[in-house]
Amino acid sequence: QHIPGFAAVSEFGYNVIARHRGFASAITRLLWGKDVRPPSYFWAHRWFLRALGLVYLIAFVSLWIQVDGLVGADGILPIGDYLSLARGQIGFKAVWILPTLCWFNSSNTFLHFLCGGGVLLSLLLICRIAPAISLGVLFVFYLSLSIAGQAFLSFQWDILLLETGFLAIFFAPWRLWPKGNPGSTIPATAPSPVAMFLLKFLLFKLMFMSGVVKLTSGDTVWGWIDHSFHWGALTALDYHYWTQPLPTIFAWFADKHPEWFKKFSVAFCLLVEIIVPFFIWAPRRPRLIAAGLLIFLQLAIAITGNYCFFNLLTLALCLLLVDDASLKRLEGRAPASPASQELRPPYASEACALRTAKRLQIANFAAIIVLIITLPLNLWLCYTALKPEVDWPKPLQMLYAHIEPFRILNGYGLFRVMTKERPEIQVEGSADGIDWVSYEFKWKPGDVNRVPRWCAPHQPRLDWQMWFAALGGRRQEQWFGDFMVRLLQNEPAVTRLLARNPFPDKPPKYVRAILYKYQFTTSEERRATGAWWKRREIGEFFPEATLRR
User: d(Cα 257, Cα 260) in Å, to the nearest integer?
Assistant: First the structure.
């Protein structure tokens, strides 16, 4: 009534569809299937929250067994020293910049409390006990540990877990024990559609940014040269399998694929990361195809590389693309109103229904506030992936600066520039400065005859950081010197992070680090020598050092 021309356009559209009703009906069935009602997401809601609980459980358990050696009082980067230094340099502002519960207590006992509490809360979330409250506390605990972890918890899956976990607070039912099974007298709180949008947009942002930054990085291995694609330049997988941080045994075999298949795989990856995310909001059938392609890409990545819980977390987000009607068809039954069957049981009392509606209203209101604050920033982050040189508008820059410490809104871009060589650090110790013995790490390449191992979804954070240290140099990775000091002290918390301590009884007098370049062996070399890797020495990475007496 109040928008000029809107009624006329609507009437014209209706008349066109009415005159071609058969064609419109066929297109509708093609895109939506037989059930054209608005989709419901009862099972996606339930499965996603349980999957997120599983990811949280993995993340906390994985960190728990390493936390003493990484950031404990006798670890490589003690959190107490880090916070004291920050407080001394920037005063009370450090509490806002570094939001962690470790300001109250940075002891090893408290770190174990955070990890153990995270494990317990993850189990509660998996069992659907107080899911919203569990998610809120899980976010606070993992944020606290992420800040405490410093360089060891600075990975993209750490911030992705925090952003997903934060948004899931508004997606979860605000009940102590949600029930929503058929015939239940207490209906589960329906998922907030606004929170659902935020989580779907997070999946879109993750995939779209990860794909676009590859093209805008300037690295020609992605085939993008002078604003056009070149098939012959799609060489990223000539390097990726053997230069990635922790390859699996399947990466060795994948590296032997023919060149045409590697090029096709790179093109497929870019297609799935850049084009497919737009179908997240498509009608049911193209949306399910998009979900299948995204899931397939994550499985392919997980088979050839150890990326911790990243692939599982992305798969959990993909569950949100599968609506109830799709599942009914998979089960071979007619999709007879899953929403009414699961979410609104006929025997629910009117008072209970009103309470459910009120909770949903509150969750929607909170999610709308989050949407209003974060959507402009998220859109700008996606734009900066396309135009990395663009300057941030001042208001958005100020807003982002206030939000950034809490890691609830992040940019993503895995492997924007492909590593084209593999330097590896071999750490050695000696009792006399003449005979040197190597420290063997649990997961990273060392012994050339040791098969590449599978450790995901666990993340060996020291092994991962050694990959970055080899690429960046010890001057960029200040923690490496602290690591060498702990080896000279033979600190048990740190040596437990290694596969073998060659000085179990008495600490070494000297330590040093040698840099090598590694590469997968060819099939012929593997048959001849039995080795999975070949290497050559480059030179010294860390000079011979000893403790001052």
Answer: 8
